[in-house]
Amino acid sequence: MEGMLSIAAxxxxxxxxxxxxxxxxxxxxxxxxxxxxxxxxxxxxxxxxAMTVAATLLISALLGERxxxxxxxxxxxxxxxxxxxxxxxxxxxxxAMPSREKQTxxxxxxxxxxxxxxxxxxxxxxxxxxxxxxxxxxxxxEKKAVWHLLTVCLVSVGVALVTWLALRVATRIGARMGTxxxxxxxxxxxxxxxxxxxxxxAGGIVELIPALGKPDVFRYGQ
Length: 222
Known about the structure:
mainly alpha
């Protein structure tokens, strides 16, 4: 279909968003935060967090580029800035450490006193953080076709569904998943996320400085 990316490209977007939202990495946090809740309450929290992820990604995909236009920010500049943010998140994941651009220690302590944690901090910023919002905006702006935007929105809903499924089984598999298992999975996803950040950064730089995209730009004597 005209104005659409390939099926493989949309699968890549879906996988990339799963990696950056990282529902697997949030399982230990979810289990700890809901330890005193009943099973029914855990279901409600999981549903609320997934709905928050869906709403955040959909709003970012639909309105993100318009917001950039209001502030006079070019998409190329946003790609470079977003890639740096994603790389910081990836570095934190490869070190198996919580990323500070998602949640500071002070926010983590405050979250313990909240009656409802589904929206904040689980939905935002632990799952749908700045990196996820930046990435979905970048992907949504790759094509101007309505069908492309609808497909990206469908991807966002799919990511929220995977997040909901992960949180629903969190209590059951949380006890079986040791810290080492979670850390290994988080580091692997961090590596994939770093590669994604480099790809987005390179694309943004080439758009800002078109000469860098020429094959002979680094050749001497040209």
